[in-house]
Amino acid sequence: MLTELKKQVYEANMAIQRHKLAIFTWGNVSGIDRSKGLVVIKPSGVEYDALSPIDLPVIDVATGRVVEGDLNPSSDTPTHLEIYRRFKDVGGVTHTHSEWATIYAQAGRSIRPYGTTHADYFGGEIPCTRPMTAEEITGKYELETGRVICETFEKLNIDPMHIPAVLVHSHGPFTWGKDAMKSVETAITLDYVARLAYYTESLTGIQNKPNMDNTLLHKHFDRKHGKNAYYGQKRK
Predict the structure, then answer these.
(1) Is 96 exposed, middle or buried (0-12, 13-18, 19+ CB in 10 A)?
(2) What's the pLDDT tens digit per position in 133-170?
(3) Pairing assessment for the beta strands 165-168 and 28-33 based on DSSP bridges
(4) 210: pLDDT confidence band, cut at 50, 70 and 90?
(5) Who is most buried in 133, 152, 190, 215, counting CB within 10 A?
(6) 27: left (phi over 0), alpha (psi -120 to 50) or beta
(7) 5-35: string of b/e by CB count within 10 Å (b at 16+)?
(8) In 10-144, at which residue ranges do the beta strands (DSSP E only) sit?
(9) Which run of H or of E encompasses 188?
(10) How do residues 211-227 score in pLDDT, each as one tens digit?
(11) Average pLDDT score over the chain
(12) Tell me, what CATH number does 138's domain have?
């Protein structure tokens, strides 16, 4: 079942390790087949070097039930599933504890847009969620994490495909995209952008540094992602 999707999700998980977005078994990537309502995700606690496509569990997005696979899915599966349920255009989700993005998550701070490197991927400030309540943490923690992510975007009226990343307060980043590999690409870019923002703020002082020009921000985002995007090569 879902042989091609398993291969894609496997390659995306391998990219986490290759790009040093996580250590040990930390981090996970999933992908969804919307037509079947099924999600493929990394199994919990399995070393990347020991992983193969056939090891990846298949989950029913509506029920959270494992429909294929002998290994337990990632403990973050309920978070992934909630993102898929609420953000209908998302095809892949990545969670890491990458260094620079996690610094901002631990500080409880969003990543402000300071330059065109940010704007090439993110159409505005990358938000940090509110702290989770004790009830959310001691209850269905991973599901509640997904709910807090979606709540953040709804309250701020953010298009999740316009800003395909979030920092979970005191935790770490989640990113997404049209497929599993695109979500990892966003995770790589997020950590790079976070590093640039950290040093920009170190040089200028966060209180004194304004966001980049809004017209320039949208120009850079739209030339890659807008309806009249012109960056890159056109497929024939």
Answers:
(1) buried
(2) 999 999 999 999 999 999 999 999 999 999 999 999 99
(3) unpaired
(4) confident
(5) 190
(6) left
(7) bbbbbbebbebbbebebbeebbbbbbbbbee
(8) 28-33, 38-41, 58-60, 66-68, 92-95
(9) helix 180-204
(10) 777 887 787 788 888 88
(11) 93
(12) 3.40.225.10
Q: What confidence tier does 84 reach under pLDDT thresholds 50, 70, 90?
A: very high
| Rama region for 148: left / alpha / beta (φ>0; ψ in -120 to 50; rest) | alpha
**Do the domain assignments include residue 230?**
no
Domain residues for the domain of 197 are 3-225
Cβ(97)–Cβ(26) below 8 Å: yes
Please indicate, yes or no, if residue 147 is contained in any of the structural domains: yes
pLDDT tens by residue, 113-143: 999 999 999 999 999 999 999 999 999 999 9
| Length of the chain, in residues | 236
Domain count of the chain?
1
For residue 17, is it within any domain?
yes
Amino acid at 130: R
Q: Is residue 232 part of a domain?
A: no
Q: How far apart are CA 217 and CA 23, in angstroms?
A: 33
Q: How far is CA 48 from the centre of its chain?
A: 19
Catalytic residue numbers read 120, 231
Residues 1-45 pLDDT 10s: 799 999 999 999 999 999 999 989 899 999 999 999 999 999 999
